[in-house]
Specification:
- The complex is a heterodimer of chains A (about 110) and B (about 110).
- Chain A is mainly β and about 110 residues long.
- Chain A contains no helices and 11 strands.
- In chain A, strand 9 and strand 10 form a beta hairpin.
- Chain B has about 110 residues and is mainly beta.
- The chains are: A mainly beta (about 110), B mainly beta (about 110).
């Protein structure tokens, strides 16, 4: 099993550009989440999904869209990148309702 | 808002037990206590979780007070590789996982 795979690992965007951060898991987990982590801070929840076709907002959803058409994939879309979205983005997946979460290695995004 | 309070940072000598406290005075009866850690800039790593009883696994022990208002994560023999930020999280079944600021643990050689 590869676990949780995030691509790309690094990305530089210009203000106003759009892009999609990819997240895939091969563990058949129902729950998937996206977090952002700014320098020296804890993780903040952006969006999450409890299964294919179901998504909901987290703590900081503005400026981001998600969809969950398959169990394996949970892409995060930045519609119009802003410098305030410069951060490290982590994707996580969980099997069941109380099991532990597995995290990807992160995508480091810089918006200039 | 995070439902837990943790010290900002702690030091522990290598080879000694590291005891990390967590306050969760408003915990509900159906909420579990989870611990994760984040080493440098890697993705967080699950350590342990519990509801009422103390729990132990190959990484750590979790001691939850009888009133469940606080808990302690114990790393029995800390090594330099245990230097990390440790997050205590309270969540119910089906709940989102919300991180607080965590405790930065420094293991001193």
């Amino acid at each position: 099993n590869a676990g949780v795979t995030q691509t790309p690992k690094f990305q530089v965007l210009k203000t106003g550009q759009s892009m999609t951060l990819q997240c895939a898991q091969d563990m058949n987990h129902e729950y998937m989440s996206w977090y952002r982590q700014d320098p020296g801070m804890g993780l903040r929840l952006i969006h999450y999904s409890v299964g294919a076709g179901i998504t909901d907002q987290g703590e900081v959803p503005n400026g981001y869209n998600v969809s969950r058409s398959t169990t394996e994939d949970f892409p995060l879309r930045l519609l119009s990148a802003a410098p305030s979205q410069t951060s490290v983005y982590f994707c996580a997946s969980t099997k069941g309702t109380i099991a532990e979460a597995f995290f990807g290695q992160g995508t480091r995004l810089t918006v200039v | 808002d995070a439902k837990t309070t943790q010290p900002t940072s702690m030091d522990c000598a290598e080879g000694r037990a590291a005891n990390l406290p967590c306050n969760h005075s408003t915990i509900s009866g159906n909420e579990y206590v989870y611990w994760y850690r984040q080493i440098h800039s890697q993705g967080p790593q699950y350590i342990i979780h519990g509801l009422k009883n103390n729990e132990t696994n190959e990484m750590a022990s979790l001691i939850i007070t009888e009133d469940r208002k606080s808990s302690t994560l114990i790393l029995p023999h800390a090594t330099l590789r245990d230097t990390a930020v440790y997050y205590c999280i309270v969540r119910a079944r089906d709940d989102k996982i919300i991180f607080g600021k965590g405790t930065r643990l420094h293991i001193l050689p």
